[in-house]
Amino acid sequence: MSTAPPEVAWFSALCDDDYEFLGVPDPTLASTWDHCADIVTAAERNGFDNVLLPSGYTLGIDATAFAAGIATRTSRINLLLAVRMGELWPPQLARQLATIDQMAGGRLTINIISSDLPGAPLPSAPRYQRTREYMEVLRTLLDGQPVDFDGEFVSVQLEPPRVGTVSGKCPPFYFGGFSDDAKHTAALAADVFLTWPDTVAGVAATVTEMRDRAAAVGRELKFGLRAHMIVRPTTAEAIDATRRLVSQLDDDTGASIRARALDSASVGVQRQAQLRDSADDDGFAEDGLWTGIGRARSGAGAAIVGNPEEVTAKLNAYRAVGIDAFILSGYPHQAECDLFGRLVLPSLPHRKLWNP
What we know:
Helix content: 25-40%
Largest sheet: 8 strands, parallel, barrel
Order of helices and strands: EHEHEHEHEEEHEHEHHHEEEHEH
Shape: globular
Oligomer: single chain
CATH superfamily of one domain: Luciferase-like domain
């Protein structure tokens, strides 16, 4: 286990992913400016280090516009803005991100997204080639350096924009993906590799593989775990909460929700399905790791479940195999944020992983 305390982040459901009962839309939990802002301010109030602002197209509200607005309503929490590579020309994106970082006083971090552009699918290899090119140009410009790049998707010779980040450096790139193309891209260009829920042994194997891939190209990575949380004062209450969450979900509705996501056919999503298939009759893949959320969610589909001591022990088990950062969520997101903030976070050492 690293001696440095981990970064602990929460999630604001900009992508229409907030429920009291999975699969049952609730107008009061729909993605709106007010609702998502309430989640972010709750995360800051509870002492989280960072908050993920996810990106969607058919779902929810725009993450970049939201980040600019919420930057002026917060003062301490970092903002982990999801940005899909290819949606905006890199020089303009660099100016946009630097401006938001200034609005946030240097608190911007970036989650690189490589899923298909809406209405313009690409096979994996060229899609990640585009991502690598965008990341290289974006990092150069946000580092305040001139760029001279001629690639398959980006060809640009340009001085850096006058506007820069507070630190004068590119914010860290958080990056997730499980195909070979994605892992190759992460090894070459990411700062923090994000993995989805898995058994402790499964996460350990991913960390080892990605450390080796990064070392082979002369780089080092930090590692983050994206997972859901269900923490209650007692184990029995936490188990009851898992059952209540899926009590109104039918399989057809769950399949429809999963299919709406742009990454619904990815290697990572397939791994989450395998984890569900390996679970016991109550949906547990191993002690404290419940896969029921994946019945109605593409992407990260499992939750860490238990009382405060059990949840803390599970998080420490992941830390022991190399996890440096946790990006957490729960349903409903604001209520679970308050529960985790009250029951677990005070006893879990944590810090900002990156200091602008």
